[in-house]
Design brief:
The complex is a heterodimer of chains A (about 110) and B (about 110). Chain A is an all-beta fold. Chain A has a 5-stranded mixed β-sheet with strand order 1-9-8-3-4, with no helix packed on it. Chain A has a 4-stranded antiparallel β-sheet with strand order 2-7-6-5, with no helix packed on it. Chain A is globular and about 40 Å long. The radius of gyration of chain B is 13 Å and the shape is globular. In chain B, about 0% of the residues lie in helices and about 50% in strands. Chain B starts with a strand and ends with a strand. The chains are: A mainly beta (about 110), B mainly beta (about 110). Chains A and B meet through strand 4 of A and strand 4, strand 5, strand 9 and strand 10 of B.
């Protein structure tokens, strides 16, 4: 089962771009990379998912190098409301590693003025 | 996207009793999962709820303690049996289609006294 490693915590000022990197050296060929955001007392919320290169949506960008052994979640111009825990997951429902999503420790992002 | 509703949202239970948590999805999904999350910790997968067959449990979780039902493609229940204070936690339901992202309910906060 592919394991992920990401920083335990990060701090940022409002308006800055935040990049959170995740390592997944044992990623399998069929595995996707997915990022979730979780606020206190809420369930995780899907942010973005990718397989390779770059994926962008209205919330974030996901950069995946050719070897796929790491990925970087980029949050442009963060605000106080982006303070949350961000989880990097490897796998995908019904495909790849064991067809389930396993959560790592997550990165606690604190945004201040 | 799928909307997932969990009931109850929270409960306080006496030790030795059992609580059944319900998870309702607003559309048919191929995959459903149950997670547990201790305060300040990451999510731990309890089991995969299989429609029409026994759930698949992760290491450390057993059917006698956490019986799971999934009678159809939109509904599942998790029962926490013979509860002790160590079972106090947040229990989350997750669902999604194979090959796509998973969505999460808001969780059930359980306190055992």
């Amino acid at each position: 089962l592919a394991k992920t490693t990401q920083p335990i915590s990060m701090d940022s000022y409002e308006g800055q771009e935040v990049n959170i990197t995740c390592s997944h050296n044992n990623i399998a060929t069929n595995d996707y990379i997915t990022w979730y955001q979780q606020f206190p007392s809420q369930g995780p919320r899907f942010i973005i998912q990718g397989y390779k290169t770059k994926v962008t949506n209205e919330v974030a960008s996901l950069f995946i190098p050719a070897d796929r052994k790491s990925s970087t979640l980029s949050l442009p111009r963060v605000s106080l409301s982006d303070t949350a825990v961000y989880y990097c997951l490897v796998g995908a429902l019904g495909t790849g590693t064991a067809s389930k999503l396993t959560f790592g420790t997550g990165t606690r992002l604190q945004v201040t003025l | 996207s799928a909307v997932i509703s969990q009931k109850p949202s929270r409960d306080i239970c006496q030790r030795g009793t059992s609580l059944t948590i319900q998870c309702q999805v607003d559309s048919q999904v191929t995959m459903m999962f149950w997670y547990r999350q201790q305060p300040g910790q990451s999510l731990t997968l309890i089991a995969t709820a299989n429609q029409g067959s026994e759930a698949t449990y992760e290491s450390g979780f057993v059917i006698d303690k956490f019986p799971i039902s999934r009678p159809n493609l939109t509904f599942s229940t998790l029962t926490v049996s013979n509860m002790s204070p160590e079972d106090s936690s947040i229990y989350l339901c997750s669902a999604g289609q194979a090959g796509a992202e998973a969505f999460f309910g808001q969780g059930t906060r359980l306190t055992v006294v």
